[in-house]
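Model the whole thing, not chain by chain.
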Amino acid sequence: MISTIAVSTGSLLVLIGLWGALTNRDIIRMIVGFSIFDVGIHIIMISIGYISGGTAPIISSLSEVGASFVDPVPQALVLTAIVIGLGITAFMLTYAVNMYNKKGTLEIDKFEELKW
Amino acid sequence: MVRKAFTLLMLIAVGMMLLGFVMNFTEKTALPEVSSHYIEKGPAELGSANIVTAVVVTYRGLDTLGEVTILFAAAAVVGLLNHLNRNESSIRREGSELLNTASTLLFPLIFLFGAYVFINGHLSPGGGFQGGAIIASGVVLTVLANPNRKIGHRVLSIIESLSGLIYVALGAAGALLIANGFLDNRIIPLGEFGSLFSAGIIPVIYSVIGLKVGSELSSVVITLNGETIEEDAK
Amino acid sequence: MEILFIIISVLTIIMALTAVIVKDRIVAVLAGGAAGLFASILFIIMAAPDVAMTEAAIGSGLTTFIFFFALRKIRSKDNG
């Protein structure tokens, strides 16, 4: 039940982020849209690994192994994905600052060299 | 107009794909085979109480090495682009007296907490990435308190490259000398399950990752703050 | 637990919508950070404390600060 709600939330966040990145004309707000897209993907991946009634995969003693735990592999993948997301966001923001230094504006429509 | 129609079309396409996925989604009741192997055999094999740490550092250690490399590349490109297009830095307003005093008082404590988080990564939630982020937020605090302070990139780059070298060397030691493969943690004895000095070299590798991630994130923060330091220029 | 989960999910979606719709850049960045913070509560309920810590420290904290540093660079050129 919980993971179904979470998958719906994640899908909605993906759609909202994509909508923001595609329709906003301001570069900073496009990047905000991309980071919301990121959060949505992370929620979807964690909820795929959720087991009904599972607990966090941290074991307190070796005899406890029989209990039900959630899937640790998607968690490990999302852990690295979040850190990479920060690197990519910093990368995009540096480009945005550079574009501002060139043109003095952040409106994407003013960058006519990008059109073809 | 064409652009709006295209945007709408793309959103509808992605929405249909996600809708199909959500409709067919059912909550799992049993683990996949690989994951249940990690959970059942992992603690006895590797001696790590936190299975996520075992997966990140050992079972999927090569992925983590690649991930740290991507982060390094991103930090390097941020620094390069900033260096190419730097403009004359303006003198910024200092932080208040309160912020200044608090940041000098708090930074060592924040650094200590970050170190605690990554040294205990194999026992409790947390680890190298979280600890590195905590250290970087301490750096954010000092940068906010005193925007004109010069922080040398040289120290950061030395820490960063040394920890990367140690990471690869420890991984290669597992492959070449004693244990079963690249990044195997059983170079030294596993020790008693649940104590601080256990799980082979997992705490060592995670501390190294923590230092590397912390220095990379700090250098991204300092670069974006705009005070790039040329020690030999001028 | 499920009611709490639904409330936090709705709050996450509201924050994300605010971040996309609102005109002011600073409010957009702050709302994006708040969406990440609520998402980290969702991660805790889904039994993923490691991911929750990372999301709260990196996805919500450091990302917002990096946005503000970039915005300050842009605005300091605006004024002078």
